[in-house]
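User: Can you write out an input/output pair for a complex, sequences first and structure second?

Assistant: Here is one pair. Inputs:
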Amino acid sequence: MKTKKSHKGKVVTFGEVLMRLSPTENRKLQQASNLDFFFGGTEMNVAASLAYLGVEVQHVTNVSKDFVGESAIAALRKFGIDVSAVKKVDHPLGIYFLEVGSAMRSSQISYNRLHSSFANITAESVDWENILEDADYFHWAGISPAVSEGAYQTLKRGLEIAREKKITVTTDPAYRSNLWNYGRKSNDVLSELIDLSSVFIGGVNEINEILESDYAFDEEGFVVASKALITAHPSIKKIFDKVRTSVSSSWQKVYGRAWTGEKYLQSEELEVRDVVDRIGTGDAYAAGILYGLQFFDDQHVLNFANAACALKHTHVGDANLVSVEEVEEVVNGNVSGRIKR
Amino acid sequence: MKTKKSHKGKVVTFGEVLMRLSPTENRKLQQASNLDFFFGGTEMNVAASLAYLGVEVQHVTNVSKDFVGESAIAALRKFGIDVSAVKKVDHPLGIYFLEVGSAMRSSQISYNRLHSSFANITAESVDWENILEDADYFHWAGISPAVSEGAYQTLKRGLEIAREKKITVTTDPAYRSNLWNYGRKSNDVLSELIDLSSVFIGGVNEINEILESDYAFDEEGFVVASKALITAHPSIKKIFDKVRTSVSSSWQKVYGRAWTGEKYLQSEELEVRDVVDRIGTGDAYAAGILYGLQFFDDQHVLNFANAACALKHTHVGDANLVSVEEVEEVVNGNVSGRIKR
Amino acid sequence: MKTKKSHKGKVVTFGEVLMRLSPTENRKLQQASNLDFFFGGTEMNVAASLAYLGVEVQHVTNVSKDFVGESAIAALRKFGIDVSAVKKVDHPLGIYFLEVGSAMRSSQISYNRLHSSFANITAESVDWENILEDADYFHWAGISPAVSEGAYQTLKRGLEIAREKKITVTTDPAYRSNLWNYGRKSNDVLSELIDLSSVFIGGVNEINEILESDYAFDEEGFVVASKALITAHPSIKKIFDKVRTSVSSSWQKVYGRAWTGEKYLQSEELEVRDVVDRIGTGDAYAAGILYGLQFFDDQHVLNFANAACALKHTHVGDANLVSVEEVEEVVNGNVSGRIKR
Amino acid sequence: MKTKKSHKGKVVTFGEVLMRLSPTENRKLQQASNLDFFFGGTEMNVAASLAYLGVEVQHVTNVSKDFVGESAIAALRKFGIDVSAVKKVDHPLGIYFLEVGSAMRSSQISYNRLHSSFANITAESVDWENILEDADYFHWAGISPAVSEGAYQTLKRGLEIAREKKITVTTDPAYRSNLWNYGRKSNDVLSELIDLSSVFIGGVNEINEILESDYAFDEEGFVVASKALITAHPSIKKIFDKVRTSVSSSWQKVYGRAWTGEKYLQSEELEVRDVVDRIGTGDAYAAGILYGLQFFDDQHVLNFANAACALKHTHVGDANLVSVEEVEEVVNGNVSGRIKR
Amino acid sequence: MKTKKSHKGKVVTFGEVLMRLSPTENRKLQQASNLDFFFGGTEMNVAASLAYLGVEVQHVTNVSKDFVGESAIAALRKFGIDVSAVKKVDHPLGIYFLEVGSAMRSSQISYNRLHSSFANITAESVDWENILEDADYFHWAGISPAVSEGAYQTLKRGLEIAREKKITVTTDPAYRSNLWNYGRKSNDVLSELIDLSSVFIGGVNEINEILESDYAFDEEGFVVASKALITAHPSIKKIFDKVRTSVSSSWQKVYGRAWTGEKYLQSEELEVRDVVDRIGTGDAYAAGILYGLQFFDDQHVLNFANAACALKHTHVGDANLVSVEEVEEVVNGNVSGRIKR
Amino acid sequence: MKTKKSHKGKVVTFGEVLMRLSPTENRKLQQASNLDFFFGGTEMNVAASLAYLGVEVQHVTNVSKDFVGESAIAALRKFGIDVSAVKKVDHPLGIYFLEVGSAMRSSQISYNRLHSSFANITAESVDWENILEDADYFHWAGISPAVSEGAYQTLKRGLEIAREKKITVTTDPAYRSNLWNYGRKSNDVLSELIDLSSVFIGGVNEINEILESDYAFDEEGFVVASKALITAHPSIKKIFDKVRTSVSSSWQKVYGRAWTGEKYLQSEELEVRDVVDRIGTGDAYAAGILYGLQFFDDQHVLNFANAACALKHTHVGDANLVSVEEVEEVVNGNVSGRIKR
């Protein structure tokens, strides 16, 4: 591990906290009589992961003003996330149901989020000036501005203030075609927000979506696409991508690749043959990037993020509950899973 | 038991199907990691109960076009309810969370239903003519028209066609002050719909709400209120009320009383000291009335409905899974709970 | 406590081991997706209880030659019962399903035992001479000879050898009208077997069944009936009865009474308002009698058995897992349930 | 997909409904304290699968007249199976226990079915004329006539009436050597019943059993055996076989092959490395054949049935809860298990 | 409610965090195959309760340097307790096992704490100066100095600094005879520490233990004993006692009484007939006192603490998860447990 | 299988019984709310495995004098282990927590055993003369003398008496660097105890530890190390090693190898791609050796032990619940896991 600095800067994340409800034992919902639940959401997952890596992190969101919202807040507290900027409002918490697949059977997700407490957030309700006062990083994902006008405006306001404060902005512009129902075009919004960001955690798919381009997915395509993104959005300095091979629901391979603005980098591929939970693996990767950027050179950032991503597949729930030591062990090639006593 | 006739007529019910999610062992949601779930909803509970009593029953509603909605339909099929008029639409299924209290601690419910598949129902989407073709009874509750304009219009259309077809209409005008957010006044709507109904399953509270009156809750108050209701809404012929004493979350007493248009009747009080589940007990009572009206004289209707209501307290979930024989045993005073081998 | 002697004699019990399957949370079977299971059976319950009271006890039965039978044997071993006389045969283990009631709702039991491994037992397959070699007590219940000709013959042979060996024979002649399907009349069989027994653990109901009499259930009736039983079956020396008041499924009261051949005795009544499990409470009483007969005067035998019976209501499963100390505490009036640290 | 017609014909199935009881987490029964349960049975599994594929299907059987039988009926209703021809009788429902293996450890099954409600079925109790009135297909398996004389006679009577009504009869002649205890020779019975059938869902093993032959298991052997079967039983028009490679309890491969009467066909092999549940996979295949015969050419029938069979390995329980769309996706080569949102 | 002031002062608590492990369904440990777990400990329970009442609270303790200790810390964070003064050391976390009784059957507890991470705490390892810097209250219980010399010395040092800082010290001198094994006499130690405290949350039992006196338990005895305590330990200003009637394990009654230094006060008695969890009810009372002292007159302090105590009986786990509003409702006599929607 | 003799000799084992507590579903402890538990411990696991193989086996240990210790004894009884030499003492039972990994994530174990009931055992408390009276084998592992002086002295005394009685002593000298805290050097103690043993179940690692040597791990290194061990400790006659390849937490390969004093032997390698439980696999191997030594030639001993070890990976819990028949099937190459009906 090559350390660059020792201070761990405070990270602020913004996004919806959803309750996930899923049957165990690969049951279909109609075979179940009870459901496990977890609290997750792409940006909150990044926050939780960072908290476990020892980083100070604050999450900004709305939850419901009822015992469901209180449970969400308690879960965030348990993760070690600063919840002082979480507001309670009179709309229900967002929910998603998950049926977990296996082998060639896909997992299926059904959302109930379009009228949630988060979807009803307003820019005025968030005191960005105060929240971002002592922040070093601000992380957002493309799902939030896709949910509602309020979420979009709130995020935009945050990013503008982050720019003023010279906070590093990272983004996972995850595109979801089945959102974006509130009247704005995804390209317009994402382009605007990417211009307020400097680290892009995404790949050819996301770039093609934003640039309405058609780059290839191979190494060359990734490099060309990355350069085009930087040309179109010069605020972006670095691009970190994650390449997944889904052999089956239960068998996944991942490696990271990056365009640093100067050169192409790639991590080794890691293989998980016995996936415990596929959800949140991209968020674990993003958290690895965010952590790495503070301490490592770019190659190690990639290796660290990819190992974190692989390890997430072995934890149930949306969040990646791994320490820096556990991630570094996998970076160092120890993947034999020997018992630790 | 004094039987009046032997034919069991088909009943049609209309209302939302909600997924109920609750922790076990009296846990607060934030203490739980999994949740039991059941499908319920006041009118669906009546339908399920009637199906277990051996009555042919069809439920009219919207569910979500996803695996959650499919599970709701499967649950209704399991109860033995005709689901051929259930539609799947692109809105999520309504949900409620329940924390179960004990002793002086209240149970708490939090709803997520205002933008549900049912709230988005439209009068045009329901083929009432066909559905009510061979029906003998139509049952509705005051919650449905409180949810949305669509639900109100759909119900009104159904009641108008029921009147044309001379179908007996029963109503449980359950008033919920925290609904009625879509712009109409509850009195106006309920008054209109009660004019299309003939059996009123409610008491002084509900009458006071509808008539904007202030009758007392004692026997005399009930009789006077009932007469006033009939005067104001002459389509109503009979009124069946349920009087509950809530000693604590775990200890309840109930008895039934009625104004038959001619005289006051009252059942014995039944006591449940070890409540298993408080939800749906009013629906069990309504189902008892609906069943009884087909077979019994009014006194026995009351006794039967009250026994059904008491028995519901001993079953987990929203629906009352009891047979006619089990109810009659309690009517006959056998409340000792001896093991049956 | 008044101790008579200090040696604890070996007890032999004979009867079916059944697997009990029941949903939790008072669910009906059709609401459940999994079932708790226990191994029980009236005589085995007596054996298990005696083992926990520190008595050497051996159980004689047949189980299935498969992993179900192996599990039954493992369960008996866990109780501390000597299983060296348990045979494995090519017939399935007997099973019963239990739906647990509450308040006025009865528990329901459904059996699957008529073609079980125990029903197929034969007198030749049991080496009674060897088993009873060092026994001091032999306990049987009226259910066993009600199951099949083989069970009847096997039991009769055991009782005959017990008589030869001058072993004290106790019986709980529990009458079950829905058994006795194999061709013999219950009176004939029970009368014959009672003539081989000396302690009768039953009351007016059972005596009326055997003598085809009609004695009353009050104290006087009990005394007269007891005397009549002894007249008809002079091998019987003492009669221990248990009087239960079933207020509801969840609320039970019990007291013991006895005819010692010379006088009437009665214990105090104990009340269990929060029944955990009703099954096996009679067997806990019988085990208390069997234990008490070895150590106590008749009044203390009654008190001890009644306290054991009451305590069984607080344990889930068929067997009473209490120590002598725990029973004696209740005998001594400590029923406040203070935490023991 | 090459569709032949658009009408989905009604299918009638006949066979035992068993309750399956199994510990979770690969536990042995003696390590467990509770058991998951499902209702299954080879022909009922076919019925359930067809119902999920959108086919109208009615199941003919006996269940117990108790809450266990009621639960079985409720489960069938939940699957969407027509239960109007299910009778309740005074014999217990059949049961089987399952210990689930892993890797080189085999799963083990122990049955309790020889005196079940189904084993006690009688030909007179089934109104085949009425049941088969509007049926297009009748499906049976070799297990039913192996259980009891009554089951055999009932099935034979049904097949004779099916022939009269020119209903297509499909059979899965699954041979089970540990049944056939009631006095008839399996060859005699199966030969007789196959002469009343036209589609044979089985392979060299089953043909060898019926013809008392010794054909090889390779492609050539299968073709020769198929021809010999058709020669001996000219009512059989097509033969659909399933070839399984059991690498371990947790890793299975399957492909389908057929003799259409004119040519040999074969599907691609599908591999399931993470088996969730091995039970009922053959029934899923049979259901795929039955569905496919109504809509597809023979090659697509094979592909569809094989994909359905593979998908069954990913669902817990005996029944295959997949839609036509899910099966077709696998037929089209999408086996990567990507999350569907 | 009569409020005295509006500022909620920070509370510091000191004591062991134990993992509680208990079977569900009133099972004995040997009947169970899994255990529910909670983190508790008398002072931590007070802290958790205060956090739910909205008070800033910090807990001082040692946990194990392993994933068990990390889980304990996460649990405290979830409660909302400040964990910045929790140290991780190379000794295991304390544990206790609990078998939950019912009716006349006592709950039983078995501890494993004598060599725990907390027992190994040292006065030097705690930075009391810093921790108590901004504290308004310091709460300790008699269990901590009973565990080990280190715990005693650490507590004493904290109390001395609290005195210097003029922090209000409250104590629950809970006496446990089966601790105090490390060489000191309980009277000596408790007397010394009480001299550093000003609010005594205990009654005649505790006073008799400390003063080696023999006062009666009635009202007069309590007043006399209280006066004697104040005479002997003049730092004590007020005494708050809790009087419990244990009808059975499942049925408890409690009321509070106090000697304010000037007069005797008493709350109404509250009755819990359906106890969910008996553990931590005294800690809930203490937390109620600590909360009340900041806001209420003494009578309301008593009422509030007693209502909090009663409500704890309805929550599973060691901590009392109630809000101020819920407690006040019970204070105001609303004990009917009506559902809140 | 080549049988040498038919008598199964009694085996005595000595060592700690620990309660294992672990979350299910690969959860981290802090994600769980309940824990599965099992009783295990390396020597007890050998005993349990031998009992399931049909060998008479007695275990010598201390447990706690509370309901935890009683549960441990009941668990041993259930396994079929003779518990007559188990003592109850006033120290808590040893415990370990297990977080189960997957893929590259390691399982983690945290112990609480240094002040346990077993660590407090004394040589005087064990009646070795009587226990070993009719024993043929005595098995010990290197963990026991690493725990405490008392455990070391107790074991040494047992081994000395075993030598006097000419009992075959087998040892698994499992070295655990994080034990040995009580003051003795591991080499000294293990060397002394190995001189009292004749079968060494360990490999190059263990030999290097004992001889402070540095032999290579390949075949040649194993043979040279074995010879050196025998030279240094001539009481050792045979050495049985187990070679494991840990591909990941979920994928393990094992084979056995031996130095018989005369020649090198090796079994085939067995592969478990779907590990259910990794704990106790070495103990299953040791039990296979102990069983095999009584019946087989050395090559079959190796094959049998390795197959037993592989099968353990498919059972949850610490003990290997397999029969001789199941092991022999795997020895014979049947690893396809076909369902057994």
